[in-house]
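REQUEST FORM: STRUCTURE PREDICTION
Request ID: SP-0412
Submitted by: Lab K.M.
Chain count: 1
Length (residues): 130
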Amino acid sequence: QVHLVESGGGSVQAGGSLRLSCAASGFTYGSACMGWFRQAPGKEREGVARISAGGAHTYYADSVKGRFTIFRDNDKNTVYLQMNSVKPEDTGMYFCAALLGAVWYECVDRSVRIADFGNWGQGTQVTVSS
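STATUS: Completed
RESULT:
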C-alpha cells in the first residue's frame, strides 16, 4: 500500500519561503517519479514540479520556474519542494504524488497527465498573503 504524507505548509508573507516535505512508504520510492501538484479553490489541480526517480531530471511549471526547487532524499524516502519568493497566487492545497514505472523522460515530459499519478497524499495547505 502506497502511503504519502505531506507536511510543511502554512501561512507566509509574499516574498517569503516554505519547504514542503513528502514522506513516502509502502512502495519502491527510489524507482518512482514524484511530483508536486496544487489546487486553488474553484480551480483545477495543476502540476507544479516533478522529479525523476534518480533525481537527475526535473520539470517545473512556468509559473514557478526560478522560484521553486524540487529535490529528493532517497535515503529518507522523502521528496521536497523548496518554495522561495512566494506569491499570493501560489496559495492552494499542495499534494505529493507518485508515478510508478515511469522512466525519466516520461516523468518530466511536459505532456504528462495528472491522471497518470495514481498515488496521492492528503495535501498540505499553503497560504500566501500580500
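NOTES: The CA atoms of residues 70 and 81 lie 5 Å apart.
Reviewed by: T.R.
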